[in-house]
Design brief:
By secondary structure, this protein is mostly helical. It has 8 helices and no strands.
Length: 137
């Protein structure tokens, strides 16, 4: 007894569906590989060295430990006032670390903010310390 024509169509259409699904999966896999090849890093390499070689890690910590007058001049606050302000605002400015990168600590955020308020200059001027130009005459 021969199978009805409706069943034959379902079998061939299910095979076509399987083939089209396989093709879609292969195309999707290929697209993911191409995207991964073109993807950039989330952070730059010099940003990743911030914890060991950054201005906060070096300059501010040394000012805090060795020269309280310069610390006060830099932040316009003494150490104790800095710590008091940090305790008050840290719950509001603390961010969580992610798997991609470490967050900026609350003390670093406060130091940058105080420096901006003290000088009125943007963050790019604080980023690069420029040497003074020599006068020719």
């Amino acid at each position: 007894m021969a199978a009805p024509t409706e069943w034959r169509r379902t079998d061939s259409s299910s095979e076509d569906d399987e083939i089209s699904l396989l093709l879609l999966l292969l195309l999707r896999r290929r697209r993911r590989r191409l995207r991964a090849a073109c993807r950039r890093r989330w952070t730059r390499s010099w940003v990743m060295r911030r914890q060991s070689q950054g201005a906060y890690c070096n300059l501010i910590q040394e000012l805090n430990a060795e020269d309280p007058d310069k610390f006060r001049q830099y932040h316009r606050l003494d150490k104790q006032s800095f710590q008091d302000v940090l305790e008050m605002v840290s719950p509001f400015i603390t961010k969580q670390d992610t798997t991609m990168r470490c967050s900026i600590t609350a003390s670093e955020r406060l130091a940058v903010t105080l420096r901006f308020l003290a000088t009125g200059k943007g963050r790019t001027s604080n980023l690069i310390i420029k040497p003074k130009k020599k006068k020719l005459f």
